[in-house]
Design goal:
By secondary structure, this protein is an alpha/beta fold. The protein contains 13 helices and 9 strands. 42% of the residues lie in helices and 18% in strands. Bound molecules: S-adenosylmethionine.
C-alpha cells in the first residue's frame, strides 16, 4: 500500500491524476503519519464498528479506519478524487465511497443502510468551511452513534470545547453540550497538512448523551433563548433576549428571579444547569 502521508507520493498522485487542491472545499490533506492512526484508535475504529467518514481526500484517514473497523463508509463531495481513491484504497474490501455533499445526505438512512448490526462512530478531518454546520447536523439528526471524533481548526476547538459559563463559550458551545460531552483529544500543528493552513488544529471528540436533553422541557424555547442571548453577548440577558428573541421583559425578569439569577446576568456567565433552569421557568411564565 502506498504511504499516503509521504509528500512525494502525494505529488506523484496529483500529477498522474491531474489533481490540484481546492481551497474552497477545504482540502488540506494530512501528512503527519502519527495523526490518522491516533484519530482511528481514539475514534472507536475497531471490531464491531462501522465508521462514517466525512471527506476522504486521498484516503489517508480512510485507510487507517478501514484497517481497524468492520466497515467504513465515506462521503466525499469532490468527484475528481474518485479515481484516485480507487487506486489508494484498492487493498480494502470494507470501504464504500459515496460521492455527495454531506450536508445533503440523509444520515439516518445512511446509517441504517450501511451499518446494520454494527455500532457506529463518525471520524473526520473536517473541511474547515463547514465545521459547525456539519457538527450541528450530526448532533441534531440524533443519530445512534458512540462518538464524533473530528479535526477542526484550533479556534473552533476552543469555542466548541469551552465550558458553558466561561468567556470562550458561545451559542455553539451550549448547543454541543446539550447533545453530549465534548473534549479536546490532542492538538495538531499546521505543518501536519498539505498545503499547510494558516492556523493550527485540534482533534475533538463529542460523545452524545441525554443528560441535558432530558432536563430541557421545551427544546424550541431553549434554542431560541441560547441563540438570542448569545447574539448580543455583551448585553444582559434581559436586553438581548427581549430585543433579539422578542421575549417580553417582565417574563425574563420573573424567570431570572425564580432561577435565583441576578437581573444583570449575561449569557456567557450561565452554565448549562442555570440556562436550562432559566428556560424551564420562562416556559412556565410565557
Ligand atoms: N481526510 C483527508 C485527510 O485527512 O487528508 C482530507 C481532509 S480535507 C481537510 C477535507 C475533505 O472534505 C476534502 O477531501 C474535501 O473534498 C471534502 N469535502 C469538502 N466539503 C465537503 C462536503 N460538503 N461533503 C463531503 N465532503 C466534503
Amino acid at each position: 500500500m502506498k504511504n499516503l502521508t509521504n509528500i512525494g507520493v502525494i505529488k506523484e498522485l496529483m500529477e498522474r491524476y491531474g489533481f490540484s487542491f481546492s481551497k474552497g472545499l477545504g482540502q488540506n490533506f494530512l501528512i503527519n503519519p502519527s495523526v490518522c492512526p491516533r484519530i482511528a484508535e481514539e475514534g472507536f475504529a475497531g471490531s464491531g464498528y462501522g465508521i462514517l467518514e466525512i471527506g476522504t481526500g486521498f484516503g489517508t484517514l480512510t485507510a487507517e479506519l478501514a484497517k481497524r473497523a468492520d466497515k467504513v463508509t465515506a462521503v466525499e463531495i469532490d468527484k475528481r478524487l474518485l479515481p484516485v481513491l480507487s487506486e489508494t484504497l484498492s487493498g480494502f474490501d470494507n470501504v464504500k465511497i459515496i460521492n455527495d455533499d454531506i450536508m445533503k445526505v440523509d444520515l439516518g438512512e445512511l446509517i441504517k443502510n450501511e451499518f446494520d448490526g454494527l455500532k457506529v462512530a463518525v471520524c473526520a478531518n473536517l473541511p474547515y468551511y463547514i465545521t459547525s454546520p456539519v457538527i450541528m447536523l450530526l448532533l441534531e439528526s440524533e443519530l445512534p452513534i458512540t462518538a464524533i471524533t473530528v479535526m477542526v481548526q484550533k479556534e473552533a476547538a476552543v469555542r466548541l470545547t469551552a465550558k458553558p459559563g466561561t468567556r470562550e463559550s458561545g451559542a455553539v458551545t451550549v448547543a454541543v453540550n446539550y447533545y453530549g460531552e465534548v473534549e479536546t483529544l490532542f492538538n495538531v500543528s499546521r505543518g501536519s497538512f498539505m498545503p499547510a493552513p494558516k492556523v493550527d488544529s485540534a482533534v475533538i471528540q463529542i460523545r452524545p448523551d441525554r443528560k441535558y436533553r432530558n432536563m430541557v422541557r421545551n427544546k424550541e424555547l431553549f434554542f431560541k433563548v441560547v441563540k438570542g442571548a448569545f447574539s448580543q453577548r455583551r448585553k444582559t440577558m434581559v436586553n438581548s433576549l427581549s430585543s433579539a428573541a422578542g421575549i417580553p421583559k417582565d417574563a425574563i425578569f420573573s424567570a431570572l428571579e425564580k432561577a435565583g439569577l441576578p437581573e444583570t446576568v449575561r449569557a456567557e456567565k450561565l452554565d448549562m444547569e442555570s440556562l436550562i433552569s432559566f428556560t424551564n421557568l420562562l416556559d412556565c411564565t410565557l
